[in-house]
Amino acid sequence: MKHAILSCTGLDKPEGSVAREVTIRFADATGSEIICPVLLNRAPARYKKALSESSLIVVDGCSTRCATKLATQLEAKVERKVLVSDAVKASGQPLESTLSLGPGGLTLAQTIVDELVRNLNAPAVAAEPVADFETPTEYLVVTHDKFEFRIPVVDYMFNENDVWARVLDGVARVGISDYMQQKLTDVSYFDSPKMDAIVEQFGELGSLESAKAVFEIIAPVSGTVVAFNGAVVDNPALINEDPYGAGWLVEVKLSDWPQDHELLLNPAAYAEIVKRKAAEE
Hints:
By secondary structure, this protein is α+β, with helices and mostly antiparallel strands. It folds into 2 domains: 2-118, Rossmann fold (3-Layer(aba) Sandwich); 139-280, CATH 2.40.50.100. The chain has helices at residues 14-30, 37-42, 48-53, 66-73, 84-91, 103-118, 178-184, 230-234, 237-241, 257-262, 267-280, and strands spanning 2-7, 33-35, 54-60, 78-83, 139-144, 147-152, 156-158, 163-168, 171-176, 187-191, 198-199, 204-210, 214-218, 223-228, 250-254. The strands form 4 sheets. It has a 6-stranded antiparallel β-sheet. Helix 1 crosses helix 6 (103-118). The longest helix is centred in the first third of the chain and has 17 residues, at 14-30. The radius of gyration is 20 Å and the shape is globular. It starts with a strand and ends with a helix.
């Protein structure tokens, strides 16, 4: 499989300089085509053949995610994404403050490239779901103008960040609410957490992206990631089609459910949150 790589321009931040360096080194190492973001935005037909025949790698410098937003707008199919600012945090070493990369920035760029090359054509493997949940059949319905937002009545708990948890045999299945999937509109990418990652309640549990926004999945529970939904990785539209069923995201083996439960909302309480949020938009 051929690859193409798209990065932000990186003109005003050290992280952007790393993104550009990653792009150049990755292209040199793999023979991949570099996609110019300016040309892609102004004349997308220029890269139509490359994007149809190649697997796309996207590299962003900072959380603005300019390259990701561009790829999403053009409905490009993305195999992998890199956020340099996250890589900086993970390394524990701050970047030099200059736009010309010093030893630390160059080392980080090569580390990112090495990881990308190792993982080429090796997509993350989703473990089989641990819990066996039935699809909900009873819902509360919050109505606002022409919109209706469904909230399952039985077994679901929510945080105020529009993420639900459903618990069975010490495992929580996690997803986003109907309200949030409608707000995001067409979800185009699910950045899943790593298997065996340890997450704290209200910590980050991956992210979702649409043309409208990047949505961080705020964990409703604490524990260890034991599965994520590979079907959603391949087809993020499942989140919009069935957010409480086939569009679930992650399963977490619980570490402190009694305490986590105290900080979550039951369906009726979450319905009040949805009413307020919908009215404020």
